[in-house]
Each structure stands twice: as C-alpha cells, then as structure tokens.
Design goal:
There is one protein chain. The protein is of the alpha+beta class and about 325 residues long. The protein has 2 domains: about 140 residues, no CATH class; about 130 residues, Immunoglobulin-like, CATH 2.60.40. It is about 20% helix and about 40% strand. It contains 4 helices and 16 strands. The protein is globular and about 60 Å long. The termini are far apart.
Length: about 325
C-alpha cells in the first residue's frame, strides 16, 4: 500500500479513536452511576378479595344433543388446582355419528392395549388436563325451550367431531325452531347463572367453487347473499379433509359494510390436486360474535405489556362465558 494511503488511513483511525474516547468516558460514567444506584424497589399491592364465578360454554345447534361446560373462574394470580375425576363417572364419546357411553375406568381399558405405554401416557395427560379445568360438579343445570325443561346430567362428554369437551349433557336433540328462545339456568352453591339464545336461519351458498393458478394450486371461493332486512353476524371456517385436519381460515364478521350484498369468502392458493376442503359458515347471534372477538383479543393481550387490556364480553347473567345458537351450513369440495 502506498505511503500516502497508509498515512490517510492512520489519520482516519486516529480521529475516530479521539471521537470515540470523547464520548466513551461520559457514557461509562453514566453507566457507573446507574450501577451504583439501587434501582430495585419492592411494592406491596393490596388486591381485593376475588370471588369465583360460574363460567359457561354451551351451544344450541339443530340436530345435536344438549351440552354444557361449567367451570369456575380464577383470579389472575391463582393457579388451577387438580380436581381428581371419579373413575366411575360416565363418559360419552361422540364421533362420526356414533355415540358410546361407559365409565371412565372402562374407557381406559378400551383405549389402552397391554404394554402400550404411549397410549397410557396420552390418556393420563388428557385426564390430567380435564382435572385442571376446574369443573363444577355440584350444579343443577337445565335448558328450557317452548315450555319444556330438560335437566342436564353430570358426566364427561367428548365431541370429537367439533373438538369439544363438556361436563353436563342431555340426549335431547335440539329442534330447528327459529321462533322460540332456548334458555339455560345453572344453580351451584348459592350462585345462579342464566342466559338465553335463539336460532337464526341457516345460510345458503350461492356458489362454491375453486380456482387454480399456473402452479396447479387452488383457492376456495364461496359466495352467499346477506339478508338486507336484519343485522347479521357470521363465522367462517375452512378445514382440510376433516374437521380435525388443518384449519386454514377462521374468522367472525358482520354485514356492516355489505348489508344485502353478495359476499365472497375464500382462501389463498393453499390446496393441491386431490385435496379436500370443508367449508363451514355459521349464522350467529351478535353476542357470540362479540364473545369470540373479545376472547381472541384477551388471549393475545394476556402477558403482553404493549397490548391494550381486553375484557371478554359475555351474555351470561350471574356468571361468565357464552350460551349461543349455531346455525351451520357446511359443504365439501374436492380439488380435481
């Protein structure tokens, strides 16, 4: 390297060192002073006593039995305590239109073959998760409709078709009645919670098809027409080959911006030739729409110091949760 170039480079480095030294000493002093300070301080916060409330999750869907999940709320600082399940508690399993009811101990014997340690571990993990839910086991639960009251019995109810678990149920099949309310009432240890819901008419798809791009990938396109005579709320879901398969879309929305118009729904180009797409559209009440949206907001805000606090909206008087009607339209597309 030429001497002049070496001189220029040396002077450049020397000048930068002077600049760094000029600012480095004050910065180090600041950090030294900060390190010398005790920046920790204990703060005592007196939290008000928390009273647990009944938490309800129950849906009325035509053609489906009556079910309810009843748990108890906890304060933010409390941890759930396991509540052991009675080995004789009846377990009802619903899957693919088949219903099986038997004691919990018998279910374990059916699911777990000899020396199948993995199945045993999975069963114990599922059982432990249920025990941590804080299930209410001393409640009187009734659902009334059109002058008839149905009492829900305690048990464990697995709805594998929809990925749900409940602890109260009745085999009565909900009718497609769009003129009369359904109401639920829960009595538990001097606490009463209640709510009501009414079925909405199901939606009819105007068209359901797929479009394929140059890469032979397909998107799903579903169209329906909104009813201009009323305010409507919807939930749209898009699954793969089964409800337990990949969930591609899940969203709630209302008709505020397209009242009475044809509404397009769909996906990106995620499906290949031979894939199956299950399209589900729920016509839902405003209370359920608000519950789902605020639940998601609260879920993502929990533990995030930069998120706005979110309160889950409920339609349950004397408790928390949701009692809602679900009017389902579902169809299947096979990508060819």
């Amino acid at each position: 390297m030429p001497t002049k170039a070496l001189s220029i480079r040396f002077n450049f480095i020397k000048n930068n060192i002077k600049i760094m030294t000029k600012y480095l000493i004050p910065i180090c002093c600041v950090f030294a002073l900060m390190a010398a300070c005790d920046l920790e301080r204990d703060i005592d916060i007196n939290l008000p006593a928390y009273t647990s409330e009944i938490v309800v999750e129950s849906y009325i869907e035509p053609g489906q039995p009556l079910r309810a999940l009843l748990t108890e709320s906890l304060s933010y600082t409390d941890l759930p305590s396991p509540r052991p399940l009675d080995e004789n508690i009846p377990v009802t399993v619903s899957a693919d239109g088949q219903v099986l009811t038997l004691p919990l101990s018998d279910l374990a014997q059916i699911l777990i073959m000899d020396d199948d340690t993995l199945a045993m571990q999975q069963f114990e993990a599922l059982k432990g998760a249920i025990e941590l839910l804080g299930l209410i086991s001393d409640a009187t639960v009734t659902i009334s409709h059109n002058g008839t009251t149905h009492t829900l019995e305690e048990g464990i109810y697995f709805d594998f078709d929809n990925g749900k678990i409940y602890n109260y149920g009745n085999p009565f099949i909900a009718p497609a009645d769009y003129d009369n309310d359904f109401s639920i009432e829960i009595n538990s240890r001097d606490r009463i919670a209640s709510a009501s819901a009414r079925l909405l008419f199901p939606i009819t798809f105007d068209s359901l098809r797929y479009a394929t791009n140059v890469d032979t990938l397909s998107s799903i396109q579903a169209w329906f027409t909104d009813d201009i005579s009323m305010e409507n709320h919807y939930r749209f879901l898009l699954h793969g080959k089964s409800i337990q398969d990949t969930l591609y879309q899940d969203g709630t929305f209302n008709d505020r911006f397209f009242n009475g118009d044809a509404i397009p729904l769909g996906s990106d180009f995620s499906f290949e030739i031979g894939d199956t797409a299950i399209v589900s559209l729920y016509h839902i009440e405003e209370s359920y729409h608000d519950f789902v949206e605020t639940f998601e907001e609260a879920f993502f805000a929990n533990g995030n110091p930069f998120a706005q606090p979110a309160q889950i909206l409920t339609n349950v008087d004397g408790g928390l949760g949701i009692f809602a009607s679900l009017s389902l339209t579902r169809d299947t597309l096979i990508i060819e």
